[in-house]
Specification:
126 residues; Aspartate Aminotransferase, domain 1; MmcQ-like protein; 6 strands; YjbR-like_sf; alpha+beta; 34% helix; 23% strand; 4 helices; YjbR/MT2646/Rv2570-like; YjbR
Length: 126
Amino acid sequence: MIDANALRAVCLDFPGATEEFPFPRHPDVSTFKVGGKIFALTTLTDTPLTVSLKCEPELAERLRAAHPEVVPGYHLNKRHWNTVSLDGDLPDRLVLDMIEDSYDLVVASLPKAQRLLLDWPGEGRA
């Protein structure tokens, strides 16, 4: 099971990833960003631990249908974001893949110059 420390480490391990706390009314909410855009949002001290991740709409619906731990994004665009409970039975590999997919979706939306600076593997696939 992925805990708060592992979640932070995974998110910050991506090229160009930063952690910020941009909500003065909610100072414990961590946002993980690349190129100034959020790819993961969490409160690392919450129980159960959850993380909101960007997702392609069709995949988001399939994940929600297949896993009770995956629900529409809390306070986010529910078409493009899922909130994932990390205290359930989801395999760690699936959670890690969802985090990476979220990062990739955000990086893909960045200008080409920023993508090149990140040395993003997806740049060669475009």
